[in-house]
Automatic annotation (TrEMBL), chains A, B:
<dbReference type="GO" id="GO:0045892">
    <property type="term" value="P:negative regulation of DNA-templated transcription"/>
</dbReference>
<keyword id="KW-0805">Transcription regulation</keyword>
<dbReference type="InterPro" id="IPR050679">
    <property type="entry name" value="Bact_HTH_transcr_reg"/>
</dbReference>
<dbReference type="InterPro" id="IPR011663">
    <property type="entry name" value="UTRA"/>
</dbReference>
<dbReference type="InterPro" id="IPR028978">
    <property type="entry name" value="Chorismate_lyase_/UTRA_dom_sf"/>
</dbReference>
<keyword id="KW-0804">Transcription</keyword>
<dbReference type="InterPro" id="IPR000524">
    <property type="entry name" value="Tscrpt_reg_HTH_GntR"/>
</dbReference>
<keyword id="KW-0238">DNA-binding</keyword>
<feature type="domain" description="HTH gntR-type">
    <location>
        <begin position="12"/>
        <end position="80"/>
    </location>
</feature>
<dbReference type="GO" id="GO:0003700">
    <property type="term" value="F:DNA-binding transcription factor activity"/>
</dbReference>
<dbReference type="Pfam" id="PF07702">
    <property type="entry name" value="UTRA"/>
</dbReference>
<protein>
    <submittedName>
        <fullName>GntR family transcriptional regulator</fullName>
    </submittedName>
</protein>
<dbReference type="GO" id="GO:0003677">
    <property type="term" value="F:DNA binding"/>
</dbReference>
<dbReference type="Pfam" id="PF00392">
    <property type="entry name" value="GntR"/>
</dbReference>
<dbReference type="InterPro" id="IPR036390">
    <property type="entry name" value="WH_DNA-bd_sf"/>
</dbReference>
<dbReference type="InterPro" id="IPR036388">
    <property type="entry name" value="WH-like_DNA-bd_sf"/>
</dbReference>
DNA sequence: TAGTGGTCTAGACCACAGC
DNA sequence: CTGTGGTCTAGACCACTAC
């Protein structure tokens, strides 16, 4: 009796091979975005495997962010709709920058909104206190809010400001007035003029996935913006959590 | 006889609850980076579940990028070592930008190298040809290479240049000479002075995961840099694939 | 009600690391 | 050799969706 390598071939296909086959169909477009992927039952008969094995194949593609399952309905190839964020924002104007982009978006007319606004005065986390130069006992005003495009959440942001500077101003109120927080800071003699943004990407924590309604296999992009006055003082730290499946980030700069 | 909701509680814990418990231990530091996570056998007896269930719990954390399994050895809490990439590079010099960063790195003395260098003349992909303004039939010189830090691959980059411009120059050779490609382009009257970088993040394709030796649950960051001459002509498109677990990206800019 | 995805058991065997 | 992670079967039951 011939003994077949069970873990790898077993004469049939393993869940990896099934995942590869489906992924290939997605890549070539045979399975177009939005279309239905074969059900577990169909995979079982097509590839001659049991349900858990068929299931694991789909699990792989879910974790790669290629498909989404809807219980009772089926599993579908994922569709993406990207939103472009430019830093600095003036990049949106024409210039060498107006040329063709690698990825196309159509954000111009998509309705945007904000919800979940929360304002508080807190002891800032150590890393934030350090950047803002807060002394022992000095607090921070924190503003949290969620951004939506087409009523879909795509970003959650948490901004910190030195409490001694913004105490009693509109920075600590829901309505920050014309020009927003930066205009208020300017009136306080702390106009932000230099900016640094630090970025990372990783898989989301559970709370982040819930807040942004992320599908399995969707990383988040962490953007931390620090704003400095002309004097070099940091007056804002803004920690943003972005749904990576909804964003293209764009930066522009010139050599000296 | 009391009927317990089987899918959720069953009296014991589901794989999600087990994953939550382990994740909490990682978050609090009870399970420190590098330390060994309970084996499948231990989870089975601790939580009174079968092996596949214990296994699925670990699978969740793997897909979140929190742990890595080494067959025969065990499963371990992941350790990260971050490398900082600054754009523009001059940000490295002092100034308002020299202040404390949110994430700390120690790249200064880590040895970096390049391998897998490949150079070819090809028909550029449509989106690249469009950006470079290539006419029908005009080709592109493409340079591919992989970047390593501490002999660990962290980035794979593919650069395209208009073949009519760089034909027969060192841009199309392995050794690009002093100052690299940008110095050669300058000599050709095509000095890059303006830059745009577009970023995305997503889970890696299989080929990307292999090339960068990525652990499960590790997204990639896609960076596409387009370089323009003073005349506004695009002379380089550089598509980079970054291991998100190894990188912090930093951008700086000033208002007006 | 039928079909689809989601969870779990019970048990088997394979591949690999470390002692 | 033992223990660890990796793969698979066979069969059960639950929860949800669409008809």
């Amino acid at each position: 009796m011939v003994q077949v390598d069970r873990a790898t071939s077993r004469g049939g296909m393993g869940y990896r091979a099934i995942a590869d086959a489906l992924r290939a169909e997605i890549d070539t477009g045979d399975l177009a975005p939005g279309s239905k992927v074969p059900s577990e039952n169909e995979l079982m008969s097509t590839y001659g495997v049991e349900q858990p094995t068929a299931r694991r194949a789909l699990e792989v593609l879910k974790n790669e962010g290629l498909i989404v399952a809807r219980r009772g309905a089926g599993t579908f190839v994922r569709e993406f709709r990207l939103y472009r964020r430019r830093s600095p924002a003036r990049l949106a104007e024409s210039g060498w920058n107006a040329g063709r982009s690698i990825w196309q978006t159509d954000d111009a007319k998509r309705p945007t909104s904000i919800d979940h606004i929360e304002i508080a005065t807190v002891d800032a986390p150590d890393h934030v206190a350090s950047v803002l130069g807060l002394q022992d006992g000095e607090k921070a005003v924190v503003r949290r809010r969620r951004y939506l495009v087409d009523d879909v959440p795509i970003q959650f942001a948490t901004s910190y400001y030195p409490e001694p500077i913004v105490r009693g101003t509109q920075v600590a109120e829901k309505n920050t007035g014309d020009g927003g927080v930066y205009a208020r800071l300017a009136e306080l003699g702390c106009k932000p003029v230099d900016f640094r943004e630090e970025l990372r990407s990783r898989m989301p924590r559970e709370a982040e996935a819930k807040l942004l309604d992320l599908a399995q296999g969707t990383p988040v992009i962490l953007v931390v913006r620090t704003a400095y006055t002309a004097g070099g003082q940091a007056v804002e730290v803004n920690e943003m959590v972005l749904d990576s499946s909804s964003y293209i980030l764009e930066y522009g700069f010139s050599s000296s």
